[in-house]
Amino acid sequence: MNKHVRNILIGVGAIAACLVLAICVYFIYLAASYSRIDDNLPLAVSGNSETGVELNKEYVIATFNIGFGAYDSEFSYFTDKSKMKSGKTYKGDHGKAVSRVQVRNNVDGIAGVLEVNDYDFVLLQEVDEDGDRSYHIDQRAMIEDRLNGMGALSDPEFGYNGVYAKNVHTPYIYFPFGDPFGKNTSGLLTLSKYKIDSAARRKLPVSDGFLDRFYLDACFSVSRMAAGDKQLVIVNLQLSKGGDIRAKQIEAVYDFISAERDKGNYVIVGGSFNYDICGSDGSFPTDEVRPDWASELPDLPSGFLVAEANNKDKVPTCRSSARDYVMGRNYTGIVDGFIISDNVTIKQEEIKKTSTEINGETQAKGVYNLDMNFTFSDHNAVQMTFVLEEQ
């Protein structure tokens, strides 16, 4: 071996050793950064509303997974996969939003939907406070400011109380290469026009996968409001997208809400269940096979029911995100909405208001999936009109 070749090999070996060392240091950094937020952690309640919840009065609640402002109809996400009926598979491209402008436009559109509909309660998922994936735009502040008087249609004298529960607090994640996910803080945002007496973050099981554990510190938030001599208990959640861990998570939720119903409390669970909550498989045309996140919801505990949308056969709430959205190609189903205790009454009659600027149709009372055609997120919002009747 001549000297020139030996020097080349030494150089290549040194570079390889540096790369291995860098990878080892990175994984040590990930391991050292890993922590889970404590269970039953009290959460701060922002806002000044002192108005109490009343029995026998109608309220409207909405849930909306806003997809950290990235998911317009053209967005695909690096963790999402889909399989066509032909057998061909696809995987999403992006680890973060395409641009800062995209995030602002999507979050502004979402805030507009909430503002026009003037909900009494709002449950949001995937709301970034600070993150590389969303260009460090504080989405919680954008939405709360819009709804608490800075938007043209808001009533500054009757703003929202807010509760925020973190479920993403990652170290810097370098995947996917070329468009890394980065370092992010995200969570569940609950907004209420009525006084929240207390709130807590409840921990859920998470995957044991080395990288999976850094992505989602699964939890649900609990907001409690006095309702007569009982409580209105509102649970805001986002479950994992499949596997055994999701089954353990829903079991933990069921245990919690069953205990609350046994106390005589009114219970509303809203959010992204990542289960098909009302048998929507086959309701919407698609070229893709059914994904794991659309498997059927396990049987509910006694005293609970799914608040099925009046238009459940017409409007899905979630799309597959391995590719851009094309109606009839992407798999769509209903994985967002509400589970309610049997002492919560859904109101079905009359017309509440018109939302033609948002979804092109008049919404009646009841439960409705808002047909937003996945314009601002890979999810559509769901709204429900309900009453807490005196027991």
Description:
The protein is α+β, with helices and mostly antiparallel strands. The protein has two domains: about 1-35; about 35-390, 4-Layer Sandwich (Deoxyribonuclease I, Chain A), CATH 3.60.10. The protein is built from six helices and 21 strands. It has helices spanning about 5-35, 100-115, 140-150, 210-215, 245-260, 355-360, and strands spanning about 40, 45, 60-65, 80-85, 90, 120-130, 160-170, 185-190, 200-205, 220-225, 230-240, 265-270, 305, 320, 330-335, 335-340, 345, 350-355, 360-365, 365-370, 380-390. The strands form five sheets. Strands 2, 3, 6, 7, 8, 17, 20 and 21 form an eight-stranded mixed beta sheet that branches. β4 and β5 form a beta hairpin. α2 packs parallel to α3 (about 140-150). The radius of gyration is 22 Å and the shape is globular. The termini are far apart. Residues about 350-360 have low confidence and may be disordered.
Show the helix and strand layout.
Elements: H1 3-33, E1 41-42, E2 45-46, E3 58-65, E4 81-83, E5 89-91, H2 100-117, E6 121-131, H3 139-150, E7 161-169, E8 184-192, E9 198-203, H4 212-215, E10 219-227, E11 230-238, H5 243-262, E12 266-272, E13 304-306, E14 318-319, E15 332-333, E16 336-341, E17 344-346, E18 351-354, H6 356-359, E19 362-364, E20 367-369, E21 382-388
Parallel strand pairs: 3-6, 11-12
Antiparallel strand pairs: 1-9, 2-7, 3-21, 4-5, 6-8, 7-8, 9-10, 10-11, 12-16, 13-16, 14-15, 17-21, 18-19, 20-21
